[in-house]
Amino acid sequence: MDKFINRLKFYLIGFGLGCVMVWAIFYSGDDARSSWLPEGRVLEFIEETGVTVESRMNCLLVCNNISISEFSNFFKNAKVNFKESTTSREPCPVYKIEGKLSNGSKITVFIETCEPRRLSSAEEKEGVATLIDFSFEGINVNCNC
Hints:
Elements: H1 2-26, H2 38-49, E1 51-53, H3 55-63, H4 71-74, E2 79-86, E3 94-100, E4 106-114, E5 128-136
Parallel strand pairs: 1-5
Antiparallel strand pairs: 2-3, 3-4, 4-5
């Protein structure tokens, strides 16, 4: 019985040290999503690079009274819909991201991300995230764009 208790002590000590190591490696502070998960990596990349808006999309945003500054809070609680995203598209995948704006309205955006490792030309070292489409309930698509 003494051998069993001795083995159990060593097992529990090792298990405890393993738990502490896993916590230290993967815990990233107060952030609700972890940056080592796919969703966290995509949203973190978009937040770091910022979103560029094409002229047609900018016109639609202005027409629907949405400012690009509202997207800064949008990405903090947004969810990436990987089933409806084209993640295998080369060199820049398109992600469908769903969330709420500051006024509480639900919005879906499609963002094309080009990470530096995926870009082919040597002069383009920075990542690019481009808003290519968006939709929400009550959208006005009859703008003069």
